[in-house]
Amino acid sequence: MVKDQHLIDKNNPVISIKGLRKSFGNLEVLRGVDLEVYKGENLVVLGRSGTGKSVLIKVISGLLLPDQGEVNVLGQEIAELKNRELMELRLKVGFSFQNSALYDSMTVRKNLEFPLVRNSRGLKRSQINNEVESVLDAVGLLQTIEQMPSELSGGQRKRIGIARTLILRPEIMLYDEPTAGLDPITCIEINHLINEVQEKYKTTSIIITHDLTCAKETGDRIAMLLDGQFAIQGTFDEVFASDDLRVQSFYNYNFTQ
Amino acid sequence: MDPNAENPNIPPQKYLISKKVDDFFFTIYHIYQFILRFFRELFLPPYEFKEIIHQCYEVGVNSLPLISLTGFITGVVFTSQSRPSLANFGATSWIPSLVSIAIVRALAPLVTALIAAGKVGSNMGAELGSMKVTEQIDAMEVSATNPFKYLVVSRVLATTLMIPILVMYTAFVALLGSFLNVHSNEQTSFVMFFSQVFDTLSFLDLFSSSFKSTVFGFTIGIVGCYCGYNSTKGTEGVGKAANSAVVAAMFLIFVEEIVIVSIVNAFR
């Protein structure tokens, strides 16, 4: 799939991170991370499991607070935001979870309505229904609207999770391992969906993965997280042309499996 | 031995006293913070009326069959067990007074609270624990919903409001069971039985029973939610959350019973 690079505004970073450090107990996961993500860009963060990729996007969404450093999202410093301001920012930052995190006591319709009803009070029932059906249609799963999450496949759950995030029309999408645990065909479908979302909803995205096919298909730029810092950033080809042995071993391991 | 000792990348953890003692005091501190947060969120808008009503239904209506059965059996058994001892003194006519005091002052609040701790408390622990480990609580938070207010405040409020109502209902059903037993043995009429019941009870009995039930309800809700909301370690953590919710709530209910009875007796 050929992506339209004109969507990216390189003069306008919507996420800017400087010197980010985050520890859990005595274990320092992020050790001075610097990163800029530009408007309209799909940035893929690659790295081995346990290197702090998910921690990074949880800090960006305000689920975790940084120990040190600056995390600026859409012009707002995350650590300085009051609760209400953080809530307002979260309306603009969508988060697609690794395990979809669908509310398992609600139908697909209720799952999608939940964020909409709570954040757009005063909407008429017909408007809510239209919105729900529109995003479900966008992810190609309109027929599942009355089903429970337990009745869906892994790929369908991922799509519904993305749809639930899209319903608030976020400016930024954070994808945590969008293709983890899926078969190759479903992985390709999810990669296409991520690109479609970028194109249709004009989102800026950070995609956390260790799936190189996903990285190649979806990433306008790749950043590789090694030992708590970004070792290298660039296009897919630039990153894997690097002489860094750690980057090479990551590439070789993935493509020889 | 420090669990991190095998990993050279992680420096050994330092403790103020020892791991167990530190953990105990940190847990106490976290519970204190959890309760403070409940009261803070309780009075701040937006108010989750729909969810509160839903939870009241879950706690109240869905507990009715079990509460009815237990209350009725408690009344019948307590009456039939008391009769032989009272009969020795020729005092079977005192059964309604004895039963009313026992049921209203102690049995109804305790039995209802213990059953609710087992049924409602474990359900809350497991439900919130499962939501926590599957990141559903985080999903709520990133979709700009306050999960504490939606999940915790509504549930704690529901138990606090519904347990006193369930206690009144249990007391009525238990007294009904007692009446049927008395009626079948002594042919006492319904009016006579209940007039003796109400003559025996004082305002302090009814007030202390209601107050106690409210405290029990708050305890069941806050303990169930705390255990679930802070559960970790996957499915094992969910099981532990449900188990801890029941055990801790039951223990606290007995402690509160002793404390409240001692205070109320000081006013008699």
Largest β-sheet summary of chain A: 6 strands, mixed
What separation lies between the terminal Cα atoms of chain B?
55 Å
CATH topology of the domain at 7-92 and 170-256 in chain A: Rossmann fold
- Structural class of chain B, by secondary structure, is mainly alpha
Average per-residue pLDDT of chain B, rounded, comes to 92
With strands numbered from the N-terminus, the spatial order across the biggest sheet of chain A is: 6-7-8-3-9-10
Largest interface: A-B, 27 and 20 residues
Strand percentage of chain B = under 5%
Give the SSE string of chain B: HHHHHHHHH
User: Strand percentage of chain A, roughly?
Assistant: 25-35%
Total number of β-strand segments of chain A? 10
Major beta-sheet overview of chain B:
none
Which consecutive residue ranges of chain A, at least 5 long each, have pLDDT under 50?
none
Q: Strand pairing plus helix content of chain A: what structural class?
A: alpha/beta
Q: Could you estimate the helical fraction of the residues of chain B in percent?
A: over 70%
Mean pLDDT figure of chain A? 90
Low-confidence stretches of chain B: 1-5
**How many helical elements of chain A?**
9
State the helicity of chain A in percent bands.
25-40%
What can you tell me about this protein's structure?
The complex is a heterodimer of chains A (257) and B (268). Chain A is α/β, with parallel strands linked by helices. Chain A has a domain at 7-92 and 170-256: Rossmann fold (3-Layer(aba) Sandwich). Helices cover 38% and strands 27% of the residues of chain A. Chain A has helices at 53-60, 83-90, 108-119, 125-138, 154-166, 184-201, 212-218, 236-240, 245-256; strands spanning 9-24, 27-39, 42-46, 68-73, 76-77, 93-96, 172-176, 204-209, 221-226, 229-234. In chain A, the strands form 2 sheets. In chain A, strands 6-7-8-3-9-10 form a 6-stranded mixed beta sheet, sandwiched between helices. The mean pLDDT of chain A is 90. By secondary structure, chain B is mainly α. Chain B has one domain. Chain B has 9 helices and no strands. Classes of the chains: A alpha/beta (257), B mainly alpha (268). At the A-B interface, helix 2, strand 6 and helix 3 of A face helix 5 of B.
